[in-house]
Design brief:
Largest sheet: 11 strands, mixed
Number of domains: 4
Shape: globular
CATH class of the largest domain: Alpha Beta
Helix content: 25-40%
Distance between the termini: 33 Å
CATH topology of the largest domain: DHBP synthase
CATH architecture of the largest domain: Alpha-Beta Complex
Radius of gyration: 27 Å
Strand content: 15-25%
């Protein structure tokens, strides 16, 4: 059996079912597959196979079954044999799993030998991906190898009737990992119960760095405004939202609007951060998510996390333990070295993390799960990909991930952050090499972004193998096509902030027609010259000046608080084409409008201006602005001029920014729907793909889904593969695979 069949209790399940059906033989791990040699009555063998294939353990995922007939050799019993090291073809890695109800009950039961034990697990729960060093998934191949099982755990491990039968991470207070509480200089605090002392510290308003499954979190009392402010100051994170962890679903429902789909995600065994709309009477401090209508919330997913909520704490900030833009810390000594200036204390343990993983982030659109960040519990993500060759796709540069193909499947890594940061780049390279070694990957082709200065592209040059550059926005489009198994031609609408185009200009407001193999750009937003390079992205007022200067608007008093001399400097540089680039980016248009409305002139995190613009809009406003579409040399173009003049006129008439923001969003939706309809008619295509980071915008996405449905156009958008740059690597795989298939 191939698939997710290791670390999910599959061998013990097969063992017990074999005894139920009177089957003789053996079962073993081989590579990342489960292999059996079985004998028995024909009808019983048939029913046994149907049972284990059609009704496997809840965590298992059967992708492929191979059956070979052989002569009987007369097995006398059924046994679980030691694993075989050699691989048999397909490789799969299990995902980390949140604590199961049975283990949760144990750690809260004073009569249990695992009462308050922070590393309790069984075959149905616990760490998997983050602790494995090589295949097959056996204890000696994980970071649990340094913890020999005590006699009681060994007994459970060997008892077919026990839910810990062959649980590779089985442990208890006697033989398993232990907690230690340290100062922010690394000195151990001697106390009877480090966990209880940590709870006291959190209630006292301290910041504690807590080591979990995939790395460290900064934790503090989410109802304490003072400590949240201190955390923001120390972490140099003035505005970006913090995620919170709440005690239980009941607490979550008091704070946020939670529908059936959101509830299902919150209590799932993946336990992601779920973006939820705050209730009007939500009494959490605004500092948690400044200027946001939604908040990222998760439930406890490890025994340790659950135990933190036993003595009066109901809600904790639980944000990634890292420096600004750096990767999550996961090694004790490095965390103390790098995070000691932020945390007051460290709650650590001695189970090593081999593969770090951030928390996954999801939301609900049209009652469907949409993944924003695929990480803990969601990776590695495996999907069908019938490639002739092994391909390694290196993704983009921000929100980095990588992916590869092997034996008819694609594999997508966990989120690895912005690799412009040196430490993130080192983590990125280590993650690639780790999986290459573990999976035995020998890529024939290495795919990378066309932008040669991306560090992912630089890394590609250093590798052995055939290289293939892939256009950024085509990769966005194909990421969605791969997810939805689309092979036929489609219209692609790709809106984002930055991506090098085939004309060496910066694209981001694109309309393609094409397939996985190739594309044709048939429309785009009109180019505008932006002055200031990366500084302009950090300071959207510069982008506003660039747009307004292009339409000869001169009333700079609308940019409140911006020095007129600074504006003049940008104008002069634009006139002389100094440090300017031309772009069609819709992301930059959002920045412009946010700055004009004085929502955000300077940002402290990616896409902040656009996010805050969405958050101020009035959803009851239905009007929009006029817009202009023209054609030049067979290419449709959308002119932003009339849209901006409509906004400026509303400002002169003191229309509320919330109404202007809504009208801008409506206009963007209207002009895009209009353009899709024109392209659909001209090229006789009725399928459209919406993708790119701008479609993280819930209002715009749902507006367009509704509008295009009314036009009888079939719409696809990214759901399981992120629409942001994290999905780029999957699109690169799909393109290279399709192109190579044609050769």
């Amino acid at each position: 059996m191939f698939g997710v069949v290791q670390g999910v209790g599959y061998r013990p399940y097969i063992y017990n079912q074999a005894n139920n059906f009177n089957i003789k033989g053996w079962v073993s791990n081989q590579g990342s597959a489960v292999v059996m040699d079985i004998e028995g009555e024909k009808i019983k063998v048939k029913n046994f196979l149907l049972q284990i294939i059609k009704s496997p353990p809840s965590l298992a995922r059967i992708e492929k079954v191979e059956v070979v007939s052989k002569c009987c050799i007369g097995h006398l019993e059924f046994e679980i044999k030691p694993s075989l090291g050699d691989t048999v073809g397909l490789n799969y890695l299990s995902q980390d799993v949140a604590i199961c109800p049975e283990c949760l009950e144990e750690i809260l039961d004073p009569n249990s030998n695992r009462y308050h034990y922070a590393f309790t697990n069984c075959t149905a729960c616990g760490p998997r991906y983050t602790i494995i060093r090589k295949l097959p998934y056996d204890r000696e191949n994980t970071t649990m190898d340094v913890f020999p099982m005590c006699p009681n755990c060994e007994k459970e491990y060997n008892d077919p009737s026990n839910r810990r039968f062959h649980a590779q991470t089985n442990c208890c207070k006697v033989c398993g990992p232990v907690l230690s509480l340290l100062t922010n200089t690394g000195e151990e605090i001697l106390c009877k119960d480090p966990l209880q002392r940590t709870i006291t510290l959190l209630l006292e308003g301290k910041i504690v760095a807590i080591k979990g499954i995939g790395g460290f979190h900064f934790a503090c009392d989410a109802r304490n405004q003072v400590v949240i402010t201190v955390l923001r100051e120390r972490k140099l994170r003035p505005h970006k939202s913090f995620a919170i962890m709440v005690k239980d679903l009941e607490t979550a429902k008091k704070l946020c609007m939670i529908g059936e789909a959101e509830e299902k995600l919150l209590i799932s065994n993946k336990r992601p951060i779920v973006l939820l709309e705050k209730k009007v009477n939500c009494n959490l401090p605004d500092q948690i998510a400044p200027n946001m209508k939604k908040i990222g919330m998760m439930l406890p997913y490890t025994p340790l996390h659950n135990l933190l909520f036993q003595d009066g704490i109901s809600c904790l900030i639980m944000t990634s333990g890292n420096l600004s833009n750096a990767p999550i810390q996961y090694e004790n000594h490095q965390a103390i070295k790098n995070l000691g200036g932020i945390a007051d204390y460290f709650l650590v343990h001695n189970r090593n993390i081999h593969i770090p993983a951030e928390d996954s982030v999801v939301k609900v659109i049209n009652n469907q799960e949409v993944v924003i960040r695929r990480a803990r519990g969601y990776t590695p993500f495996i999907f069908p990909m019938k490639a002739k060759y092994e391909i390694l796709a290196l993704g983009a540069e921000e929100k980095s991930t990588f992916s590869f193909t092997q034996n008819g499947y694609g594999y997508m890594s966990q989120y690895l952050g912005d690799i412009k940061n040196y430490d993130a780049y080192i983590t990125y390279k280590k993650a690639i090499e780790n999986l290459r070694t573990m999976m035995g990957l020998k890529p024939y082709i290495i795919a990378h972004d066309l932008h040669t200065i991306y560090l992912s592209s630089v890394y590609a040059k250093s590798q052995v193998g055939k290289k293939m550059g892939v256009q950024h926005h085509h990769a966005h489009m194909v990421s969605c096509m791969v997810e939805h198994h689309l092979l036929e031609p489609a219209i692609g609408v790709i809106f984002d902030g930055t991506g090098i185009g085939t004309d060496a200009k910066i694209w981001g407001g694109e309309f393609f027609i094409g397939t996985r193999e190739n594309f044709m750009r048939v429309a785009h937003f009109k180019y505008v010259a932006i002055q200031g390079g990366d500084q302009a992205i950090r300071e959207p007022w510069r982008i506003a000046v660039s747009f307004l200067h292009s339409i000869h608007y001169e009333n700079w008093s609308i940019l409140e608080g911006i020095d007129i001399n600074s504006i003049k400097t940008v104008k002069q540089a634009l006139d002389k084409h100094l440090n300017c680039y031309e772009t069609s980016s819709v992301g930059r248009l959002f920045d412009c409008v946010a700055a004009i409305l004085n929502v955000r002139h300077r940002i402290t995190y990616d896409a902040q201006a656009a996010i805050e613009l969405e958050n101020i809009l009035d959803p009851y406003v239905e009007e929009g602005y006029s817009y202009s579409i023209y054609e030049e040399n067979g290419m449709y173009q959308i002119d932003y001029k009339s849209i901006l003049f409509g906004i400026l006129k509303d400002l002169e008439n003191t229309v509320a920014p919330a109404s202007i923001a809504a009208k801008f969003h409506n206009t963007l939706g209207n002009v895009t729907i209009d353009m899709v309809c024109r392209i659909s008619e001209r090229y006789e295509l009725k399928i459209v793909v919406l993708t790119g980071g701008v479609f993280e915008n819930n209002y715009l996405l749902t507006y367009m889904l509704k509008g295009l449905k009314e036009k009888d156009i079939t719409v696809y958008y990214n759901q399981q593969i992120p629409t942001n740059d994290s999905g780029i690597c999957v699109g690169q795989l799909g393109i290279v695979d399709a192109v190579e298939e044609m050769i």
